[in-house]
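Revision sheet: structure tokens.
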Amino acid sequence: MSIQINYKNKGSKNPAANLVLFVEEKFNINSLKKFISNTEYNYIFELLKTNDLKQDILVFEINSKKSIFLVSVKKDITASDIENLGAKFHKHINYEKKNDYFVHSDTIVVKAKNFLGHFLHGLKLKSYEFNLYKSKKKRRNVLVNVIGSNNKTSNSDQIKFKALEEGTFYTRDLVSEPGNVLHPDEYAKRINSLKKNGLKINIYDEKKLKKLGMNALLGVGQGSIRGSYLVTIEWNGAKNKSAPLAFVGKGVCFDTGGYSLKPAKFMEDMTYDMAGSAAVVGLMKNLALRKAKVNAVGVVGLVENMVSGNAQRPGDIVKSYSGKTIEILNTDAEGRLVLADALTFTEKKFKPKFIVDLATLTGAIIVSLGSEYAGLFSNNDKLSKQLLDAGEKVQEKLWRMPLHKNFDKLIDSKNADMQNINYVGGAGSTTAAQFLQRFILNKTPWAHLDIAGMAFSKYGGALNSGGATGYGVRLLNQLIEDNYE
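Predicted:
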């Protein structure tokens, strides 16, 4: 479904069909008398006596050509609540199968900032679908006309919302692609195409990575016929040369587990093991499209974890970019190896204000938090609070989990500086984060977001209809808007 927003009908009055009106909480319609006819008002008034008023949206069919949608708005409504209303309206568009709607801005009954923008933003986010590989595509174009004089969505706000939608959709597209299409070679090409948006892209191929000594990252990808890459994506939107904000993503395009092979039922979903990197790429595209007044860099490690005669073996020892050595006890604990080299490289090359990494890193975080929260691990209370607050605002929620030196003994190795898993058992997500922390060498503020339970939803969420969620793009954009622009 393609939804187009038309702001050119501000002067239109009572349209013939599909009118969307906002009303006070519990469907108090007193304010609507000047927007609909007496007959329509009386008809709706009588029907409301028998309707379930616990719903947020009610539909009244006036005649075969006209329906009136009433959207109930709470007095203390938040921006996130407004977006959820827009998403709920999308369900009615799906059900009604009508292709023209008129949203009357003069009926907005609260003074929430940018109400209309958030409502339409929620509608657009919910409308996403991935049907690229269906031979019979359902093509449906829906036009949402904004009418009335209370349209306060400025051009700059429209640009911001559109950029965020495009960034989120780009992330969802990347995560939705199958592994035979979006392998590391293709992924690097797609990122490189973002140069047209004003981003500076550098691609480090295997030859360059070997020269740099990124053996932890290269070890993961050595069993694949595809290349392994580290890609940097820079946006310089601040007027000064201030240190950038850094975002690092795990990009395992497909994860068999390597010789520590996954069971079949867990392997089929491993096309989305690159969702952390996709969130970083979508965020950077969003920042470029809205010309964010901030310096930022995205760094993604792109590999494929396959089984072959050249694949990494359990028991191998590799020397990371940091100089620290790692004993590979489990080849399915591969994401932390990719991130290890990417984190040290990012800190050393860019000297950022902070580093936030995102990864579908552990199944243990799903056991802990399900699909309601991503796990947050951090060495910095200020950055943690900023992330938690941003997550609450956009309902991409985080829950802070512990880091402590006592966990280090669980990943100390007899044969190398460390091992890549905790063989004792337990604390799977924490020991993975503790492992990553060892590669932050200069005490840079750092946060690790384990998004394994959030990147993909089989049932759909408030603002997505199932499949890839795009988790992280809106969260990190909010972090930047609130604290760094």
